[in-house]
Design goal:
Strand 18 and strand 19 form a beta hairpin. This protein has a seven-stranded mixed beta sheet, with helices on both faces. It is globular and about 85 Å long. The chain is about 25% helix and about 25% strand. The protein has about 725 residues and is of the alpha+beta class.
């Protein structure tokens, strides 16, 4: 990201110049502007050749002055439906009350400028499109001014804009809606000057979400609400063990249920086979599935067992692995103080409030998909392959989604392909019309693609003064990248970068790190904050333990270990400490402080928490966050993301927050036996942001990693027990 483009008076070039821009005529309906950023094929080009350069529209100004911004991401709670329109509105000088957002369908112009594919992930939505969306607004504004100047026969430099209106030197004025048709006939400026941050009207200001009213009133349509006329609903019986087949099935009882119209065997993810029940609605489809009699063939697939896997992982952690970082550990044996620890982390389900769903309308030569997808580009290609079509013959409409946390960004496009396969079977049987696939909550919890289970082994040596002189560390777990299109970029010398991210940095410690990438018949995937879900916990509890061994305050010890050049870490930590009252405020009896800090997705979050033990269980009362994400485009969004992340992270500490397998079968199936944090467990969370005018960094995920270790560090002060695994278990600590 070119941070210098934010400086006043500096022109922001549109990559590649005029030949790389597209401009679409919209007739009397208004003004449309779009362009393609060269370099967008950085990932796609290496894998598939140069990215297509066909442009698409990002901005529409209607005659009634309504400004509609196409949001090239998925909105599933993180606030991009407001933040991205804010960027355009800022440079456009729009009237915010007239700005609307619309989720963009799959399209080349909507690809992430830095990733080369249309996606929502890696906390990159605002960070990656910060300049892109501002330039769109600035170019649209320049063309509107040019149209007004031409109309009034004045120099464009004599005109100014404000609140969706162009003003001329002699008191003339015209709304953007009036000028839209003429503006689209103006040439696209090759360069534009972006605003200085001191002139921002929207960016950096707390702004209510565009979609808040619809969502809070129940009027917002999510993917699971959408059902086109004539659509049937499909529910699939998946194999109990991943990749298993159907030996035989009896559908007679299912077909006897009123509303059930068809039962088919269909392919499911990872080479497995399932049975789809199609009905007039969800309830008869589910009843029909429950009535199926299926004999499953599980003989040819491996059957994971969590208890056995843990034993194997612990043993493996004590053997040499693939080197990720090298450091001298010769001083470990003779160190006067030592810390040795084994950490355990279970599989985790994403468990969004809205289960997976997808509508497919398969016709001759074309397929239309409606889904709340994080991976429009992958899903469009996967749907096309499943349907026997070309990607350009598939329309993917992005629907609002009720959460995802990574589950709607699957490289295999599992539920999208499953929906297409069901639609193919429906069509092959002589039927027409759309089919809506719905996963139940149980399907979602048992359906795979979990945060991997991990084991960490750490051996740390400290000198007499408490300085860390050697740190030998091993990580054992499945790779989420191996076998995906991201492997060639994110797996180097056998090390999955996501498995080790967050280890070491920013601390100046001699870390010797090795990795064992294991295999298991359990589908794994990124989970909100990815590798930092486990590395952040390990690093921040071990640093806290080292501080205790050194006889130092944990905040002072961290400051000592963080080099001065890591100014953002220091600033976030100091802000959280200052705002919490740490070290100054007297806590209630039986309460204790806990501190942790972690950087992920280029943002730093520091937590100071206040906790106690209630009825033998840890209880979190208060959380103070210091956040350094550079410029906060919408501080309200940052606050909400940190609050939500803190609650989600709290859930990982609660008894029952684990996916376990026995005989290859996932033992959990709903919120009754897979624990998530609930409203009554929400602590008071205060969020403070370090001021900055640098280009923004990611904020969707960074609030997750430091919460659990801060909580664990507080529990140690209360009990003297070091918690080595998630979820917390004081009985075995």
């Amino acid at each position: 990201m070119r941070k210098e483009w934010m400086n006043q008076g500096e022109a922001a070039p549109i990559g590649g110049g005029v030949s790389r821009r597209g401009f679409l005529k919209a007739g009397a309906a208004g003004f449309v502007l779009g362009f393609v950023i060269p370099g967008a094929g950085r990932f796609a080009a290496a894998a598939q050749g140069p990215a297509p350069s066909a442009p698409n529209a990002f901005l529409h100004i209607a005659p009634d002055n309504t400004v509609t911004v196409m949001v090239n991401r998925l909105e599933f709670g993180q606030g991009v439906h407001t933040a991205l329109p804010m960027l355009i509105a800022e440079e456009l000088d729009a009237d915010w009350s007239h700005v609307r957002g619309e989720l963009a369908p799959a399209g080349d112009a909507f690809k992430d400028p830095m990733m080369g594919m249309q996606m929502t992930g890696g906390s990159g939505s605002v960070a990656h499109s910060f300049v892109q969306y501002r330039e769109i607004g600035a170019r649209a504004r320049a063309m509107l001014v040019a149209a007004a100047a031409q109309k009034w026969n004045v120099n464009p430099g004599q005109c100014r804009t404000a609140n969706g209106v162009v003003f001329g030197p002699a008191g003339q004025k015209a709304s953007y809606g009036e000028l839209a048709e003429a503006a689209m006939k103006q040439p696209m400026p090759a360069t534009v000057t972006l605003k200085d941050p001191k002139d921002f009207r929207f960016i950096g200001k707390p702004t209510g979400r565009i979609d808040a009213r619809a969502k809070s009133s129940g009027h917002q349509q999510f993917g699971i609400d959408f059902k086109p006329p004539g659509a049937k609903v499909a529910v699939v019986a998946h194999p109990p063990v991943f990749s298993a087949k159907v030996a035989k099935f009896d559908a007679s009882k299912a077909m006897a249920i009123k509303g059930v119209v068809a039962v088919f065997e269909v392919p499911v993810d990872r080479g497995g086979r399932g049975v789809a029940v199609i009905a007039d609605g969800y309830w008869p489809a589910k009843q029909g599935r429950d009535a199926l009699v299926i004999d499953w063939d599980t003989g040819a697939v491996a059957k994971a067992d969590s208890a056995q896997q843990l034993k194997e992982y612990v043993a493996l952690s004590k053997t040499p692995g693939t080197v990720a970082k090298q450091a001298d550990i010769s001083k470990l044996a003779g160190a006067p103080k030592k810390i040795s620890a084994i950490y355990e982390f279970p599989y985790l389900a994403h468990a969004p409030m809205e289960p997976l769903n997808c509508v497919v309308d398969l016709q001759d030569g074309h397929c239309t998909v409606w889904a709340g997808t994080q991976f429009q580009t992958f899903d469009q290609a996967a749907a096309a392959a499943a349907a026997g079509l070309k990607p350009e013959q598939v329309t993917v409409n992005t629907m609002m989604a009720g959460g995802g946390f990574g589950r709607r960004a699957v490289p295999t496009s599992d539920y999208i392909v499953e929906a297409v396969n069901v639609a193919k079977a429906w069509r092959a049987a002589g039927h027409t019309g759309p089919v809506k696939l719905i996963w139940s909550r149980e399907d979602d919890i048992k359906g795979g693609f979990y945060r991997p289970a991990y084991v960490h082994r750490a051996d740390i040596g400290l000198d007499a003064k408490g300085n860390i002189v050697a740190w030998d560390h091993a990580i054992v777990g499945q790779s989420i990248i191996t076998g995906t299109p991201f492997e060639q970029f994110m797996v180097k010398n056998g090390v999955d970068a996501t498995s080790v991210e967050g280890m070491g940095t920013p601390y100046a410690v001699p870390l010797n790190l090795t990795v064992h990438n294991t295999k298991a018949n359990v589908p794994v995937l990124w989970w909100r904050s990815v590798g930092s879900t486990h590395t952040g916990f390990v690093m921040e509890t071990l640093v806290d333990e080292a501080a205790h061994a050194a006889g130092m305050d944990p905040v002072a010890y961290r400051k000592k270990l963080i080099p001065a050049e890591h100014k953002r870490h220091h600033a976030a930590l100091e802000l959280a400490v200052a705002k919490s009252g740490y070290g100054k405020k007297k806590l209630p009896k039986g309460h204790a402080w806990g501190v942790a800090m972690h950087e992920s997705f280029n943002s730093v979050v520091a937590y100071v928490v206040e906790a106690s033990i209630s009825n033998g269980q840890p209880k979190l009362h208060r959380v103070t966050a210091g956040v350094h994400c550079n410029l906060a485009v919408n501080p309200m969004t940052v606050e909400a993301q940190v609050q939500g992340a803190a609650l989600m992270a709290l859930g990982t500490t609660l008894p029952g927050a684990a996916i376990t397998l026995k005989d290859g079968i996932v033992e959990q199936q709903n919120f009754s036996d897979y624990r998530v944090a609930r409203m009554n467990e929400m602590p008071q969370v205060e969020v403070f942001i370090v001021p900055s005018t640098d280009a923004p960094t990611g904020m969707g995920e960074p609030g997750v990693p430091p919460l659990a270790p801060a909580f664990a560090n507080a529990v140690f002060k209360l009990t003297g027990k070091r918690l080595r695994k998630l979820p917390f278990d004081l009985a075995t600590a």
